[in-house]
# Entry
Amino acid sequence: MKALPPIRRQVAVPAAADVAFRVFVERIGAWWPLARFSVHGEKATVEFRDGRLIETGPDGEVAEWGTVLQWRPPHELRMTWHPGRGADRAGEVAVLFVPVTAAQTLVTIEHSGWENYPDPVAGRQEYRNGWPAVVGAFAEQIPGNADGGEPVWLVLHHTAAPGVDDVFADPRFAGHPAFLARLREREILVAAGPFPLSGEGMTILRLSDASQVPDVVRAANEDDRSVATGLLEVHVRPWTPMITGMTLS
# Structure
């Protein structure tokens, strides 16, 4: 069986990368949705302790969720991931903190290692549905709006979801050009199109200021029906063009 690609879930928060990193790791027990995603339920606690992510139930029983593999503040946290399972069945989760501006950060959760799950396809689908709630809960811990300022460029990299042989032949693909048309109506679309033969595509956006970034990240995952229904997957990345060959208003 071909290895399943990582799942990525993303959110833009109005904070510098160092602040976003600290909120994620130091306040994880305050924002993690334990009622939905835990071993011991909503009355449990969770924290990073001695290089591990540990959940403690109300009766003191401990469940290890994972072991830290890389701790590189404020840019990256990488760990094994096995809540409710043994370490021999661990996947891997990376959390990346990429500055969009000095006061805004794109946070990406990247979950891989599906070959270690008893049912890789089912496990991937379960987490595909669960991670959006987690990143949403994290974003609520950093309220506010991003400042405006200079234009921001974003690249949306689209790939076919696992098991999809021809994205263009699937009726769900109609949602993708419709989404791109809405971006064009917002006057933020610079260019979009596929790479020949690969099933991948790229969209380049130019936003007038950073305050638009959170909504664009959300829309790329939720409003593009080809992504929301599981035909395509999207990876949003900030981009810094060093030179352009045309005048952009």
Summary: Helices lie at 17-26, 28-31, 120-140, 175-185, 213-222, 225-228. The mean pLDDT is 94. The chain has two domains: 7-140, 152-239. The longest strand covers residues 62-72.
